[in-house]
Amino acid sequence: MTLAISEPTTTAVVLLIFGVLIAFSVLFTRALDRLGVPVVLLFLLLGMMGGSEGLGGLSFENYEVAYRLGTIALVLILFDGGLNTAHTSILRSLAPASTLATIGVFGTAGIVAVFARLFGLSWPEALLIGAIVSSTDAAAVFSVLRGGSLRVREPARSTIEVESCINDPMAIILTVSVVEYLRVGGGFSPWAIVEVPLQLLIGGVVGAAIGFASRWLLNRITLSTTGLFPVATLGVAFLAYGLSTIAHGSGFLGVFAAASVLGNGPLPYKSGLTRVHDAVAWFAQVSMFLMLGLLAFPSRLVDVAGVGMTLGLVLAFVARPVAAMLCVIPFGWKRADVIFTAWTGIRGAVPIVLATIPILAEIPGAERVFDIVFFIVVVSAIVPGASIVPLSRRLKMLDDSPAPPSATLEIHSRKRMDGEIHVYRVTPDVAVCGASLSEIVFPEHASVVLIVRGDEPLAARGVTRLREGDYVYVLCRHEDEPRIGLLFGAEAEL
């Protein structure tokens, strides 16, 4: 994008167009949520409309800048995903997700490459396309499974999410290996087979170590304002990516590991931090997909529409389902979980970012590969995305657990306090169901501070009687949690 700093009017026009694109994207997200289509796909299409061949007329063809900014955006998105992923989900899904992230990615790449060759592409183009589109995308997956109205049951949900966070190293290694092979010639190194698990191990260890060190430090310092805590955690995200990458590990997995350690432990201003990072992640998604949309030229896409659409359908109906099923069937899952996991292989910005690598390496025909990949991503996102909602209902994959409360309560503090708010849902089998607050014997430093009944928040009074389905917010010290648990049962999942 060419911007003259001395011309404020040009800058104002660019910002105006960018603001309009963002506003339209946000306004249409609810409609796409109901359909199950990744909302980030809309950002991509609006970016095309704002490009040099669209209504906006913004000229942008800097693939190096797109690669750098795309990497930063993915770091922010993965950090937010790690903050909001429970350790129980990670441990539950680690084995199947790791299998999908390695063997599944390799199998998907191979199947797509074979079909691409059958459809008339050269072997270099076929191998590049197979490697580039082999991994699922965390931003697209999170926007469907977390940003929409879906509440998919376990183990499929956590496996799909964790897979999308850890499968990038395999796709990157495959893409770089093919690029190096085409650029300098020679055979593929068997070291690549060892390199993938080694990168995952190094990235996970380095990221977890940074997470523990950061959590220890944040709990022992006092900052002048709560606004500095998100700044500190953003620094943790970039530090985790940088150190993990320098150590020859997976930077993306390092970010996810650091964030999951932070999110699953005590932190000051924790609820505020998660809100800020959620907003930052959404802004990163919007900006990244709009930027990548600007890189697409509709006039060039027309020439590859046929092969792009065909390979997109192959990826959605053949490559991903076959590779994924072979990976998860050995784990003894139910048939519905296998089918849903195999089908939900949504592609997004990662393949488009990877498609810039051959262009930066000046591989012949790389721009055509980029255009085909762009088309594949759009098709493979629409086909699985639009069918996820009806498929989840048909397979009875929707989680029947209660919806989270419509109101929340939190404490803002610049340092860790000796007491936290815990949320419990009243069920018929807990001791407090049907009792009034005055009849419940609480520990000395514990008290109910809010009750949410349906869509209505209620003041916690002694005469208030707890009913089934109520969400109760209890302030208590850490040592009193076991006793509160005897009264209210397990904490509610929000």
Automatic annotation (TrEMBL):
It is found in: Cell membrane. Its main location: membrane. It holds the Pfam family Na_H_Exchanger. Residues 409-490 form the RCK C-terminal domain. The keyword Flavoprotein does not apply. Gene3D superfamilies: 1.20.1530.20, Regulator of K+ conductance, C-terminal domain. Coiled coil: none annotated. GO terms for molecular function: antiporter activity; monoatomic cation transmembrane transporter activity. InterPro entries: Cation/H_exchanger_TM, Na+/solute_symporter_sf, RCK_C, RCK_C_sf. GO terms for biological process: potassium ion transport; proton transmembrane transport. PANTHER family: K(+)_H(+) ANTIPORTER NHAP2, NA(+)/H(+) ANTIPORTER 1. This is NhaP protein.
